[in-house]
Specification:
Layout lengths: L18 E2 L2 E2 L1 E7 L5 H12 L2 E4 H10 L3 H11 L6 H14 L4 E5 L5 H11 L6 E5 L2 H10 L9 H24 L3 E5 L4 H15 L2
Parallel strand pairs: 3-5, 3-6, 4-5, 6-7
Antiparallel strand pairs: 1-2
Helix pairs in contact: 1-8, 2-3, 4-5, 6-7
Length: 209
């Protein structure tokens, strides 16, 4: 318990493991395909368990709006359904963690591939407590994305299908990696929101115990 690969003591690891700017942090990765409902569930977790929600997608979109050179690059890659370079997202996540007064974080939509995963752990020294995986069929996710109206530039059918392809090829190996470490908590995300959250609550009650 409390080793580099097993942080079951909720961030009680000493030395350089799971620290960011001198403070010990607990990180939970939240993964699931586009439209799997993970953003909604993250909001529920924040309200009920006191975590800070860091959405990789929201951080990237904020960078796009800033008009920076990074923002322009990110915008072009998202239009093509490509993965943004790991160091760009990690830098944004690190800044958000450092500037937060909290020590418990949900990182939503990251890591997206093995490079992301290895780079995050290497650069930050943070190993996730658990990985929450919202499992939802492609058909259900596509239906949800087409039905929602959030003004998202990347929610047209062609781009949605590109995103599915990238997700299947890149994200599932990450889930497999953490599954081999016993860190993945898989949830059937096709169920109604309130039913899904009951499963989420049961997981977090054990994590926070």
């Amino acid at each position: 318990m409390g080793s580099v690969t097993d942080t079951a003591n909720m961030g009680s690891v000493t030395d350089t493991t799971n620290t960011e700017s001198g403070k010990k942090v607990t990180v939970i990765f939240v993964l699931g395909g586009p439209g799997s409902g993970k953003g909604t569930q993250c909001t529920n977790i924040v309200q009920n368990f006191g975590y800070t929600h860091l959405s990789a997608g929201d951080l990237l979109r904020a960078e796009i709006k800033s008009g920076s050179e990074n923002g322009t690059m990110i915008q072009n890659m998202i239009k093509e359904g490509k993965i943004v370079p790991a160091e760009v997202t990690i830098k944004l996540l690190q800044k958000a963690i450092q500037e937060s007064g909290n020590e418990k974080f949900l990182i939503d939509g990251f890591p997206r591939n093995e490079e992301n995963r290895a780079s995050f752990e290497s650069i930050t020294g943070i190993v996730p407590e658990i990985v929450l995986f919202f499992d939802c069929s492609e058909e259900e996710m596509e239906k949800r994305l087409l039905n929602r109206n959030q003004g998202r530039e990347d929610d047209n059918i062609e781009t949605i299908r590109k995103r599915f392809k990238v997700y299947m090829e890149s994200s599932l190996p990450v889930i497999q990696y953490y599954g081999n470490l016993g860190k993945v908590r898989r949830i059937d995300a096709a169920k109604p929101i309130d039913v899904v959250f009951e499963e989420v609550k049961a997981i977090f009650e054990k994590v926070d115990a």
